Structures are given as structure tokens and as C-alpha cells.
From TrEMBL:
One Gene Ontology molecular-function label: ATP hydrolysis activity
Keyword annotations: ATP-binding, Nucleotide-binding, Transport
InterPro entries, per database record: AAA+_ATPase (IPR003593), ABC_transp_ATP-bind (IPR050319), ABC_transporter-like_ATP-bd (IPR003439), ABC_transporter-like_CS (IPR017871), P-loop_NTPase (IPR027417)
Originating species: Evansella caseinilytica
Highest taxon, organism lineage: Bacteria
ABC transporter domain span: 4-250
A GO biological-process term: transmembrane transport
Name under which the protein is recorded: Peptide/nickel transport system ATP-binding protein
PANTHER family: TRANSPORT ATP-BINDING PROTEIN (PTHR43776)
């Protein structure tokens, strides 16, 4: 079943250069779909368009078969509940003035009227935060700290906990390990794999790192200069018919 369908999506910058150029793809429920490409190729712009954080010029986006491009702000609220994002820089994603527990509870407070939680239960703020921290393998007393008081790897786990707190259908992972050291990268990728299975999540995993994308994803898309130039299953990564640019990426990972 297709969870997300994108048809001929185009986003043009003011100077006339397309950031996203006629992009079409489907993301199936329960899968991790990888999107790889060098910095500046349009990956993050595509993610912002999918979330309606940025307008696009033409094309269509269907989430659970419902077109989202014409939704107003009130209609977008349930859509944004169902699609969450984890950004590259967790320090910038967390309010430095809020304790971790308050950052974790914020999505619940925003969407409590629309929520029907099945994996987590809200009996109290403290109990809810404890469940989330345990889900991302963090000590429960970390909730009383501020973002600057914890490590980069811990901060990224907090942003993941916040993303899963309202049990979305899809999480967009936009370079989620790029700012982490090698050991933290491996631990976060393992955690994300476990959460996808446990919580029955779907991922759009965006990265310039083909090794990480191939480790995480069942299918992989390659983006260059705003266009999708290659799409294939993980088992076809080294097939002869791969685009020359894909082969170039393979040669350096």
C-alpha cells in the first residue's frame, strides 16, 4: 500500500533555477525509502515541500491517497501530525531554554485532541516522558536537563523521541547522523531500525552517505541537480544498469 505518492513535483527558486525538478515516487507503508545525493541537490527542499513547510510550483503530493497541496493551515494540522521530521542538527531543533522533558511533551500538547495513542500512554507528564526516553534508550533522569547539558548523540535521540511521541505514520530523517561521531552514528541507525519495526513506522531517509542509506533502506533513490536520476531496490545497488552518477557514489563509499 502506498503511504506517500509524489507526482511531478517541481519547486523553482526565485532566480528561475529548479531546486526540485519533476520528481515522482511512491513510499510504501512500513518501508524505509532512501534518498541519496550530494549537498545542494534538492533533498532537503523536497522534504520541506512534503511537509508543506515550503510552497512548490507544480505537481501533486498524496498522503494516504489524499491530496495535500490545496490544504489550508487548519486542514494541514492532522497532516503534520502524521508526518514528523528529524533534522541534521539536533542542537538547532531543540529550544535551549526548555528542559528536555518540556520539549518532549510539546508535540503531545499541540495535538492531544487528534491523538489516539497505541504504543505510548499518557497518564501523567512524567510517565509519558519516561516512556519516550526509554524508547530511545536514554536515562530517565535526562528529562530534567537542558540541551546544552547532554551530548550530541543524546540530543539526536531526544529529537527522535519527540518525533515518535505522537506516533506518526511517516518520519522524514533529514541527514540524522551527519553531525554525529562514527560510534554515535551506528547507534542511532540501529535505534531507528528497531523503532521502525516496533512502532510500525515508515521512513524517508535522506542522506549524502550512500553507506548509511543502503544499510537502512529497502529501496533507494538517487538525486542530482533537483532530479531523481535512479531508483532501485537495495539488492540492485551494484547492478550494471545503475546510472553513471550512482556508480560514482558507489565507488567512494
Amino acid at each position: 500500500m502506498s503511504l506517500l505518492t509524489v507526482k511531478h513535483l517541481t519547486k523553482i527558486y526565485k532566480e528561475g533555477r529548479p531546486a526540485v525538478n519533476n520528481v515522482s515516487f511512491e513510499l510504501k507503508k512500513g518501508e524505509c525509502l532512501g534518498l541519496v545525493g550530494e549537498s545542494g541537490c534538492g533533498k532537503s527542499t523536497l522534504a520541506r515541500c512534503l511537509l508543506r513547510m515550503e510552497p512548490f510550483d507544480s505537481g501533486a503530493i498524496y498522503f494516504k491517497e489524499h491530496a495535500i497541496e490545496q490544504l489550508n493551515e487548519r486542514q494541514l494540522k492532522p497532516h503534520r501530525k502524521n508526518i514528523q521530521i528529524v533534522f541534521q542538527n539536533p542542537a538547532a531543533a531543540l529550544n535551549p531554554k526548555l528542559k528536555i522533558k518540556d520539549s518532549l511533551i510539546d508535540p503531545y500538547d499541540q495535538y492531544r485532541k487528534e491523538l489516539h495513542l497505541s504504543h505510548f500512554s499518557y497518564t501523567s507528564k512524567e510517565a509519558f516522558v519516561k516512556q519516550l526516553l526509554e524508547a530511545v534508550e536514554l536515562p530517565t533522569d535526562l528529562g530534567d536537563r537542558y540541551p546544552h547539558e547532554i551530548s550530541g548523540g543524546q540530543r539526536q535521540r531526544v529529537t527522535i523521541a519527540r518525533a515518535i511521541s505522537i506516533e506518526p505514520d511517516l518520519i522524514i530523517l533529514d541527514e540524522p547522523t551527519a553531525s554525529l561521531d562514527v560510534i554515535s552514528q551506528g547507534a542511532v541507525l540501529r535505534l531507528l531500525t528497531e523503532l521502525r519495526t516496533t512502532l510500525r513506522l515508515s521512513y524517508l531517509f535522506i542522506s549524502h552517505d550512500l553507506a548509511a542509506v543502503s544499510q537502512m533502506s529497502q529501496r533507494i533513490m538517487v538525486m542530482k541537480a533537483g532530479k531523481l536520476i535512479d531508483q532501485f531496490s537495495r539488492s540492485q545497488l551494484f547492478a550494471e544498469e545503475r546510472d553513471p552518477y550512482t556508480k560514482e557514489l558507489i565507488s567512494i563509499f
